[in-house]
Amino acid sequence: CKARNSGISIAKGEYITFCDHDDVYLPRKLEISYDLAQKYHADIVNVGHENLFDDGHRFTKGINLTCHNRQEISENIYAISFDHVSTIWDNLYRYKAFKDNFYFDSKYTRGQEDINFNFRLLQYARSFVATKEILYKHIIRKSLSTSSKIHIEVIEGMIDAIINYLRCLSSFEIDFSKRNDKNIMVLAKLFRILCV
Hints:
Blueprint: H1 2-10, E1 15-17, E2 24-25, H2 29-40, E3 44-53, E4 58-61, E5 65-67, H3 70-75, H4 77-83, E6 91-94, H5 113-122, E7 128-140, H6 152-171, H7 181-195
Parallel strand pairs: 3-7
Antiparallel strand pairs: 1-6, 2-7, 3-4, 3-6, 5-7
């Protein structure tokens, strides 16, 4: 988190994106993300990605979604929250839209910083665009992953993610006390991660 925050503090551009040191941007990832941000005036652009595990297993994630305003984000919050906020490397962010909230909490030293960062930013997003086009390859090495090992910091980070998810819903004036299937699916996913 400290290195990311140092980079953010000296950034000069309109947009910021991230790449893990062992992952791969596919050709045109930045170009397509930027074009979508410009075309839709998006505060957050999410691209499809492929997860590649060290055992050879792989799967892809992606969605085509355009939310021009907060109302449309609110209407699609469950789809966005379920699969498109757990990581930062598949997103492009309009820095100025989040300036006061655009930082990583340095208490997360063993994972969960991405999901908490994204839920915090999503509370202020005015527009969101996603493409299911696969533009990022995420390499997962179980033996090296900081978030795959259970530490008290990981548990605290997931509890914070649940709290930030509920704050996010509240920012869109969504009554999270109502039991609906989509809300339960997102919470179940967060709790499942917490309990693994």
